[in-house]
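Lab notes, practical 5.
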Amino acid sequence: MGKKVLIIGGVAAGPKAACRIKRLLADAEVTMVDQDNLISYGGCGIPYYVSGDVSDEKELRSTSYHMLRDKKYFEKAKGVTTLTSTRALSINRGEKTVTVENLKNGEKQDLPYDVLLLATGSRPFTLPIPGNDADGVFTVSDIHKAVEIKERIARGKVEKAVVIGGGAIGIEMAEAFADLWGVETAIVEFMDQLLPRIVSRTLSTILEKHLRDNNVDVFLGEAAEEIVTEDGKVVGVRTAKRNLEADIVIMAVGVRPRSELAREAGLHVSDGGAIVVNERLQTSDPDIYGAGDCIEIPHLVSGRKFFAPFGSMANKQGRVAADNMAGQVSIFKGGVGSFILKAFEMSIGSTGLSLETALAEGFDAEVSLTSPADRAHFYPTQSIMCLEMIFDRKTRRVLGFQGVGSTSDGLLARLDAAAVALCGNAVIDDFSNMEMAYSPPFSSAIDPINAAAYVADNLCEGRMRQITMDSFYAFMADRSLEPDWLVLDVRHVKQATPLVEKFGESLWISLPYDEIRERYNELPTDKTLIIFCNAGTRSFEIQVFLDAMGLTNNLVLPGGYNVIKRMGADWLPES
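Output from the prediction step:
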């Protein structure tokens, strides 16, 4: 008889590990246990099933060759004994057994193991507010709930939806309701921006505007205080500021690791509730492994442990755990928290640390903000991306990379390249010289990721001085904050004139880029010039020139009009 391998959890890491072990040890007795009757599904695809982009929930449970990943599939095709609707109750580490219960008939049995994998995943957090268990309140946790949500919409029972939580799942579900179904949808987020601590306020504001432009209401800085009910059914959500009507409420306020089984067995669990593992994914018991949403992993930039509930990460961890359980040494070094999501016609994503997190971690962090075209500027399908590179000024190490763009592959390609570099402790110069495949339909000769590094280099070396977008917006909202600031618009006169006419030359003046060298003497010397162009590139060139002429009282607005237009502002003239 071969090695007895027992796996608790059958969604992502568990099935990956089970199949990998059978490929390495064909005679192994592999048993997989899950409390649900549906297993091995793409949970990240649930919003796209609800929206209708994925027509049948079985597609989330099918292989690329259209076989349904069910109990029969794992037993017949993979040779893995599969116990569904079976809950693991306790681990007896001394006897090396796990007590399980059949949820259909209540029968219990002890399953022996030589090696055990805990792939118990995570559970959605439920806000402790009145009405949280009402009919019509859902978390996005499994296919059963996804099917029920979609059925309610299809039967015409949902006209208004409220999504509590402005993270990735909340945004994806809001799109699912509003886009194809036309449901009146609102997002309520406790923090003062979407995707808090993941992307910057600048990029978050761009996303917020895009959601609003697509008829999704966004209410920031508001906590859901009560889910309002009538006869046990949802009718709305109450915050301190408003009452929102709702036929359905999605609670998307994060997930927590399922680690009770490990904790009760005496395994080491972190303060945050995640199972602690080493680089071989062994727990504090060398015969028990952990993988997926239930464990914490090292962050390869900050060095701290973090919780990374990503399906892609779980699959990789399942393979590494399987290798080691089969006696083949394999290492999982950690991750950098890469993610990307689609919101209507926009993509937004990040890898590594945000500026906010980097500063909190003690780095001497700064950010370069650029707004390049995602391919050659002359190519017909080019579109603007807004990119941020977060770096340490002292060491020049790149700490993070994030951006927004269209739903083409442009942003994804740069995030993926950055993620690989971050894992290798890359510095600004590595990004400056990074080789990216070039052809006009796909990129520009100077790739946007190189250009972001050039700006970071200029900032590090003191060649460029900038103001933040937050500071500029605050100034435009209240000019008394900086009465000596004057915006120098170096774009074409036709582009600058609407703003000059709106604000007057005491705030906004026009002097085109190609006339600065001849007319710089016309510029006031008693003002701080905020140099403004479309993307920031020309602004930097003008800064260098003005500095050489002794007019050093100037700052560049990074990203320029390209970013401001996408963020939206009530002071922008209608274009």
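Observations recorded by the TA: The chain has four domains: 4-122+256-325, 137-253, 339-460, 469-567. The chain has 17 helices and 29 strands.
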